[in-house]
C-alpha cells in the first residue's frame, strides 16, 4: 500500500483522541502493513531524558532507554529521524532482538517538546529508504493531529 493510502487509512483508524488507544492502533497498523519488520512501537518520555516502553507489536523489548543510549536515545536527544542501514555499525545500538538488522526511529515532537519516539526494526539490512522515512514521518503527523496528549 502506498504511503498516501496509508495516511488515509490511519486517519480513519485513529477515531479516538486517546493517546494509548491511538498509539496501540498505530503500532498494529504499521506492523501489519509494512513488509519485513519485526518490531514497531513507541517509547514515551514520561520523565526527563528517559524513554519508557509504550504500546508496541513484536517481541518484549528493552526498557527504559536513557537519552544517551541507542538509536532511540539519539533520535530523542537530537530530535531528528534516525535511519540506520546496519545496526551493527551504529555504536551504542541496543539489541533487544538479535534478529534486527536495520532501524528507523522518528521523534514525535509537540509544541511542549519531545513526547516520545516511534521505533521500527527490520531483520533486513537497509530496509528503510528515504521515501520510507518521509512516508512514516507523515504518518506520525497524522498521529499527532488526531491525538490528545496528556502529560
Ligand atoms: N534498538 C533500539 C532499542 C529499542 S528496540 O529496537 C525495540 C535502540 O538502539 O535504541
Automatic annotation (TrEMBL):
<dbReference type="InterPro" id="IPR051330">
    <property type="entry name" value="Phosphatase_reg/MetRdx"/>
</dbReference>
<dbReference type="InterPro" id="IPR000614">
    <property type="entry name" value="FRMsr_CS"/>
</dbReference>
<dbReference type="InterPro" id="IPR029016">
    <property type="entry name" value="GAF-like_dom_sf"/>
</dbReference>
<comment type="similarity">
    <text>Belongs to the free Met sulfoxide reductase family.</text>
</comment>
<dbReference type="GO" id="GO:0005829">
    <property type="term" value="C:cytosol"/>
</dbReference>
<protein>
    <submittedName>
        <fullName>GAF domain-containing protein</fullName>
    </submittedName>
</protein>
<dbReference type="InterPro" id="IPR003018">
    <property type="entry name" value="GAF"/>
</dbReference>
<dbReference type="Pfam" id="PF13185">
    <property type="entry name" value="GAF_2"/>
</dbReference>
<feature type="domain" description="GAF">
    <location>
        <begin position="29"/>
        <end position="140"/>
    </location>
</feature>
<dbReference type="GO" id="GO:0033745">
    <property type="term" value="F:L-methionine-(R)-S-oxide reductase activity"/>
</dbReference>
Amino acid at each position: 500500500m502506498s504511503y498516501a493510502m496509508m495516511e488515509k487509512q490511519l486517519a480513519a483508524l485513529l477515531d479516538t483522541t486517546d493517546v494509548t488507544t491511538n498509539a496501540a492502533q498505530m503500532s498494529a497498523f504499521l506492523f501489519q502493513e509494512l513488509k519485513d519488520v519485526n518490531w514497531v512501537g513507541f517509547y514515551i518520555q514520561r520523565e526527563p531524558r528517559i524513554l519508557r516502553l509504550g504500546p508496541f507489536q513484536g517481541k518484549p523489548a528493552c526498557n527504559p532507554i536513557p537519552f544517551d543510549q541507542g538509536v532511540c536515545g539519539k533520535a530523542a536527544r537530537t530530535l531528528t529521524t534516525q535511519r540506520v542501514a546496519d545496526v551493527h555499525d551504529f555504536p551504542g545500538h541496543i539489541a533487544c532482538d538479535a534478529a534486527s538488522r536495520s532501524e528507523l526511529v522518528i521523534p514525535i515532537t509537540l509544541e511542549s517538546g519531545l513526547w516520545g519516539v516511534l521505533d521500527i526494526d527490520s531483520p533486513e539490512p537497509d530496509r528503510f529508504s528515504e521515501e520510507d522515512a518521509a512516508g512514516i514521518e507523515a504518518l506520525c503527523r497524522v498521529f499527532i493531529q488526531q491525538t490528545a496528549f496528556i502529560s
